[in-house]
Every structure is written in C-alpha cells, then in structure tokens.
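seq as requested:
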Amino acid sequence: MNTDYRNGIIELIELQGFRYFTTLAFNRDITVGGARHHLKQLHARLDRKALKTNWAKRDPTTERLFSISFIEHPLTNLHFHMLWRAPQHEAMLIEAMPGIWKKLFKSGNVITLPILKIDKLSWYCTKELTDDSYILSTEFSSLPSHHALGRLSHAG
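struct tokens:
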C-alpha cells in the first residue's frame, strides 16, 4: 500500500467531523458486490427513516447519513468499519440501525460506538486500505457532483 495515499485518506477522514464508528458484520460468506448492495440499502432505509419524504433529494454530505465505510477481510470474514455522521438524527439512527441491518441480513450484527480519538480510529480503519476498499456514502446519491473523493473534504 502507498503510504502517501493512506496518509491522504487519513487526513481527509480527520477533517469530516465523523461522530460514530460502526462495525457492520455479515457473519457468513458474501461477495464485495453483495456487501456493497446491502450497505447501499442500509443507507437508503436509514435516510428514509430520518428524513421521511424526499430523502433522496437531500444533500448527501450535510443532510443525509454521511459515511466512509472500509471493507475488511474480503476473502475470509468480510465486514465494514463505517465512520459516520448524520445531522440531527444520530440518536434515532443508532437505535434503528441494528433492526434494519437484521432485516437486510439476518445473520448480521451491528456495533456502534462514539468516536473518541479519530486519529487512532482512522489509522485502524485504513490498515487494509486499497484504492477500492472503501465506499463513500455519496456514491449512493443520484444527485450530480457528489461522487468524487474531492467531496469528502467538505465537512458539514
């Protein structure tokens, strides 16, 4: 792994104001594509719960659940480490996330903790970093200009 690349991702993470760290486990075999699909569904259902109507038209970095999720152990025990924030809806989403995840993936489980030291956590989350091992929640948005990594540097 390129150290400069990893350091750049860590620097961007530390600027985002992420408040929570969630591990999303599948607890069975799944492809990266399948895991990505479930993560997209989780985001959609959480945004719909928090924002109600027209949730998909809301800004994905300032109004919706905004996250970066890192894929870990894709060949043996694929799971996500997700760093996230959700303006005004965090408590509701923390409560709703385990039930929604279970509906999406019965064998799965969720652990969410507040972020106390983003520097250590960002280092941990990027330990298996490759250029395709992380997913920005903005990738799930249909709104234009929210897909590039450059949007990551605009904290809400």
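The first strand starts at residue 20 and ends at 25.
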